[in-house]
Amino acid sequence: MAPPVPIEVLDIAAFEMPTDEPESDGTLQWDSTTLVLVELRAGGKSGLGYTYGHRACATLIRDKLAGIIEGHDAFAVRGGWLKMVDAIRNLGRPGISSMAIAAVDVAMWDLKARLLDVPLVTLLGAVRPAVPVYGSGGFTSYSSDRLQAQLGGWIEAGIRRVKMKIGREPECDLERIRLAREAIGPAAELYVDANGAYARKQALAMAEAFHIHGVSWYEEPVTSDDLPGLRLLRDHAPAGMEVSAGEYGYDLPYFRRMLEAGAVDVLQADLTRCAGITGFLDVAALCEAHQLPLSSHTAPALHLHPACCTTPLRHLEYFHDHARIETMLFEGGLVPDGEGNLQPDLSQPGLGLQFKHKEAQRYRLG
Fold first, then answer.
1. Pairing state of beta strands 341-342 and 131-137?
2. In the predicted model, what is the mean pLDDT of residues 102-119?
3. What is d(CA 341, CA 214) in angstroms, rounded to the nearest whole number?
4. What is the mean pLDDT of residues 177-184?
5. Residue 333: predicted pLDDT
6. What letter would DSSP give residue 2?
7. Which of 4, 21, 22, 131 has the most CB atoms around its CB within 10 Å?
8. Non-local CB neighbours of 189 within 8 Å, separated by 6+ positions
9. H or E segment and range at residue 85
10. How far apart are CA 271 and CA 28, in angstroms?
11. CA–CA gap between residue 305 and residue 18 (Å, rounded)
12. What is the C-alpha to C-alpha distance for residues 190 and 42, in angstroms, rounded to an integer?
């Protein structure tokens, strides 16, 4: 057995970036996004991880998790993950605690791969060389022209499926969907995301109306807390329209309850929320046991490597906000190829990302 390599330093910082224009979905409005960055050093190498969440995640990492991880063996990733889960017992696992763990866990996986001088996808064990993506944006705050330009631009770039937000003004949703279909053409897949804005019967009526425009993915038609409502939509939505949810899952019991309720056709998981790559791999194993596909939620640069290594994965969300930020703040961020796939850079160790500290300083929170 190789001798342990203790983690020497954990650095933490938070950055707030304005959106390129105001954004909204069916239940929320925002004009900025916060990224919490963790950097670890051990054995002459450094690894990075991050989450998208409130700056309070940084405080929790600094006050509660750093002392646990500093001195821990950089090769024993799951052991470190379990220590962090134990440490936040009295704080509550869902929410900020799991998001804070996620940033540290990603940094540990990145560090381990860099110490071994291999890409993270190689360390985890690939089952596919690349991952299909879907373009995600189409915010309810967008003008008709902006909506069509964004969705149509993804199709022109070779992405074969796109997602738009609905639900803020239900009376406008059908016309916006018609405009989206006009922009992307008849062959592309069209997804919609209500972010839980509809009531059950309203959501079911909308599903019938959306069907004429070829909508094939109906995300959070009702709140994810309403598992019977999701099951109702899954059972009665038109043929060819899949119901999806799961992005607000923080721990394995949440995902298990959703699967046991038969609430979704495709489960979603977000490693920046479900306690990192370690948590995401556990969700993938749960999906495999239930023979249900998995789709990753947001943060494309973080999901790429583990997505290549999870058997039940359907596709990866190429979310406009995060894809933009990952290009702004990191060297090594990738864009989909002409076939609508993301492929890891096998010439770089770990995640293949380098943080642009100088460019990021203007966004740093005190």
1. antiparallel
2. 98
3. 22
4. 98
5. 85
6. P
7. 131
8. 134, 160, 161, 162, 216, 217
9. helix 77-87
10. 21
11. 27
12. 45
Residue 3 counted as domain residue: no
Mark whether 104 and 85 lie in a shared domain.
yes
Contact 261, 231 (CB under 8 A): yes
Q: CA 135: distance to chain centroid?
A: 13
Amino acid in position 273: R
Is the model's pLDDT at 2 over the cut of 80? Answer: no
Hey, which residues does 162 pair with through a beta bridge?
Answer: 135, 190
The Cα 233–Cα 205 span in angstroms is: 10
Instruction: Provide the 10 A C-beta neighbour count for residue 332.
Output: 14
Residues facing 267 on adjacent strands: 245, 294
Task: Extract the tokens encoding 346.
Answer: 């096998």
* pTM score of the predicted model: 0.97
- Tokens 């024993």 belong to which residue? 76
Tokens coding 280: 């995401």
Domain count for the chain, please give it: 2
Report which of 86, 38, 79 is spatially closest to residue 61, judged by C-alpha positions.
38
Cα 273 from Cα 50, distance rounded (Å): 11
- Phi/psi of residue 353, each to 5°? -110, 145
Burial 193-206 (b: 16+ CB within 10 A, else e): bbbbbbebeebbeb
Distance CA 354, CA 351 (A): 9
Q: Are residues 254 and 238 in the same domain?
A: yes
For the beta carbon of residue 133, count every other beta carbon within 10 angstroms: 28
Return the percentage of the chain with pLDDT > 70, whole number: 99
pLDDT digits (tens, 9 = 90+) for 200-243: 999 999 999 999 999 999 999 999 999 999 999 999 999 999 99
User: Any idea what the CATH number is for the domain that residue 253 is in?
Assistant: 3.20.20.120
Same domain as 163, residue 84: no
